[in-house]
Each structure stands twice: as structure tokens, then as C-alpha cells.
Amino acid sequence: MQSKGKQILAVWGSPNSGKTVTAVKLAMALADRKKNVMLVLCDDICPVLPTIYKSKAPIEVSLGEVLSAPNITQEVILRNSLAFEKNSYLSVMGYKAGENPFSYAEYKKERAIDLLVLLRHIVDYVVIDCSSILTENIISTAALEVADTVIRMGSCDLKSISYFMSILPLISDSKFDADKHIKVLSHVRQFQSGDEYKNAFSGVSYTMPYVQSLEEQSETLTLFEELTNKTAKGYGLIIKAITKEAFGDE
Fold it and tell me: For residue 101, is pLDDT > 50?
């Protein structure tokens, strides 16, 4: 795959818009092509790692340990990331069960940027699952600023529209390049009017259909498994299309 020099992809959007699911599937698509990928799960209010990663033993590594370390080094990063046995090209970092925003000392935006810059040198690609609460999650805001590509996830509900009306002004500065975000409408069911929401979001690049098997994976901690049924084929094609647009052709 020709990456065109792009390495960092941030997945951001309204609450319950499918950010984590999309980030996982994009990371898997890259790892399946034998590219070293780090998936960074930023939410420290409701840690995502324990809800998507099935482990026999308690997870003891944490993104918080990295961001609060005296110096962020490759050793610190690798020590606090999880590597997958089934796919050695994929690793993940996130907060562990029971942690919250007060579990670690506060850090500055420069510390988050240092981590993201170092990750560029450690892995081929970085996929960041951003928190919706930008005002309280520094690394998510930093990711929107330094990412080569941002996927903006929205859903077919009025809360999603209200969210962007409130939050988009916070990233109106030119350093965020919000007008270049790839906009995705997620979990669209047959009875929902996708066109109406496309207009509300000033157009979208991709529309992801609701896939029951994807919801089942989320509920059974099997998101890192392949989607094999026929109903998920269209979803898989969209993931491939987004990967191609974000990073270039194979």
C-alpha cells in the first residue's frame, strides 16, 4: 500500500455513532495487509478496552501510564500496549477497567502530541478512537489537530445533529482543518431517511448500514473477529473504501 506519507487517522464523532467499532475495523483492515498498526482508545470516562478486548487475565496496562510517565519512550509505549496473538501486526492502547479522568496526573497537550509523534516512528499506522467529549479529553483534541485524516462519525438522530452544532465551533480554527473531515453516517436502518440526515450534516462521504452481526460482535467482545456473513459485505466494502481514501491505494 502506498501511504502517501499519511500515518495517523483519527475517528471522531457524536456519542454512540460507531466511532469505536469503525476504528477497530479500520485498524484490522490495515493490519490484515501486514502493516504494523497501533489502535489508541482515548476515552477515560468509560474505558473502552475492557469492553472490546477479551482477556482471561485482568488487563494491567494503560494509556494513562504512558501519558503520565516522566518521559514517553518507545519502551514505555510498548510496555503499556497489548499485542494480538491472532494478528501480530495489531496492537492496542487504552485505559483499563476502573480508571477515570482522575486516575492519573493532568498532562498538557504537548505531552499528547509527543506520544502521537513518537508513534509515527514506531508503527506504520496509528488509528485513534477519539472521545466525543473534546473539552475533557486532551489527547482526542490533539489527535484532531495532528492527524493526517479525520473520520467524522454521525448517526441518524437529533442528538447527533445537536452535538455537532455545539462542538464544531470549538474546532473551527484552521489548524483542525474541519472542512477536510471525511464525513460518515453510521448505523443507518432501513426505516430511517438517510438523505434527511445527509442534508443536516451538509453532505456525507459514506453511509454505513446497520449490521446486526456487528452489534452482536460488540455485545460479545468479538469485534476483532472477521465479519463473515453476507449482510456485512456492504459494510466491509465501505471500510475498504475509507481505508483507501485515508491512506491511498494498495
Answer: yes
* Beta-carbon count within 10 A of 235 CB: 19
Largest interatomic CA distance in the chain: 52
- What secondary structure does DSSP assign to 139-182, as a single string? HHHHHHHH-SEEEEEEESSHHHHHHHHHHGGGG-SGGG-GGG-E
Q: How far is CA 160 from the centre of its chain?
A: 17
Strand partners, 82: 92
Contact 62, 97 (CB under 8 A): no
Measured in degrees and rounded to the nearest 5, phi and psi for residue 160 equal -65, -45
Alpha carbons 138 and 145: distance in angstroms, whole number = 11
Q: 38: which strand partners?
A: 91, 126
Cα–Cα distance between 69 and 81 in angstroms, integer? 14
Over 50: is that where the pLDDT of 2 sits?
no
Average of per-residue pLDDT values in the chain: 92
First CA to last CA distance, the chain: 4
User: Measured between alpha carbons, how far is residue 160 from residues 14, 16, 152, 215 in Å?
Assistant: 5, 9, 11, 19
Give the cell for residue 77: 509505549
Q: Closest by alpha carbon to 210, among 181, 231, 179, 237?
A: 231
All domains in the chain, ordered by first residue: 8-247 (3.40.50.300)
Q: How confident is the model at residue 43 (pLDDT cuts 50, 70, 90)?
A: very high
Percent share of the chain, pLDDT over 70: 96
How many whole angstroms separate alpha carbon 250 and alpha carbon 242?
Answer: 13
